[in-house]
Amino acid sequence: MTTSLPLVFDEPRRAKKPPRHLADLSGEERRAAVTALGEPAFRAKQLSNHYFSRLVSDPAEMTDLPAASRDKLVAELMPPLLTKVRDLECDNGQTRKSLWKLLDGSLVESVLMRYTDRTTMCVSSQAGCGMACPFCATGQAGLTRNMTTAEIVEQVVDGARALSRGEIAGGPGRVNNIVFMGMGEPMANYKAVIGAVRRFTDPSPEGLGISARGITVSTVGLVPRINQLAGEGIPVTLALSLHAPDDELRDELVPINNRWKVDEVLDAAWGYAQQTKRRVSIEYAMIRDINDHAWRADLLAEKLAARGDWGWVHVNLIPLNPTPGSKWTASDPADEREFVRRLQAGGIPTTVRDTRGQEIDGACGQLAAANS
User: Fold this and answer.
1) Are both 196 and 221 inside the same structural domain?
2) How many domains does the chain have?
3) How is the cofactor bound (predicted)?
4) Is the pTM of this model over 0.85?
């Protein structure tokens, strides 16, 4: 298979950068921005409290700010970045997929999933994706551009608002988990993604105050960025989208494997686990007659067990959510069960992901593709 790969660390071309937003800035940068607008520095904390704690952006609700300053501060530091195109719901209203239009017309998606013990938000980090994985709807679309930190954060703030207002089935609640598993390759937009992680984990009112242990950053295997993330001092969960244990097949399924091979990627993941003491999740889409062979389960178990025996890793098998017209489809349930059995027999903790949202174009990129 011949696939043209981008220079994954390059910033994709875009016509105009989105305007600056409060969520793009650190606390110090917010204070500087506020004083540059002729306001006292403490207004930055007030604005942060409204955005991250009270979850409001309407100047009329910011009654602790001088009436003469509200509109200016909001216009300069809380400009609208995302426009809701549509929401689709399933699971009795506990799963909501949102399609967003960015200021340049690009489409991205986020998903809110409410469970009995937590609420998870799946967010996009890029409009499209340049990794070209052939079974992924987003990969088929190609990369449009990187998203900014604030554009990423806004997806979660919208979900947090909906939960706080009781708009999601189950009554008022809050976001507990965030997974960077929507559109895009997070590690190819590293600076903005780390900025968003910091906004999510910064204590209120500087950020949303979500535990780093409740945040998962996924990657198809950009080894230098995995190593960089290990040194950030933020103990997020690393999810490695592996999808094949052998280079021959992974070169086809995950074309970036032509740059960093399976063993290199697994070594980086093992290093991340060693440095952070956080268990790595291996994501593995189960594709019928492609990567679901029993011998591949044995090989995967062997490779993972060879790198450590202290429970450094967990395999998350994902029944493929096929895209319209695709030749790729989910594995036969019997083959899936055998794959699980062989991994567990090899000492590897393994689960099968709860698949939600198939009836609402649940696979990342499907809803955007249907509306483009």
Assistant:
1) yes
2) 2
3) Binds 1 [4Fe-4S] cluster. The cluster is coordinated with 3 cysteines and an exchangeable S-adenosyl-L-methionine.
4) yes
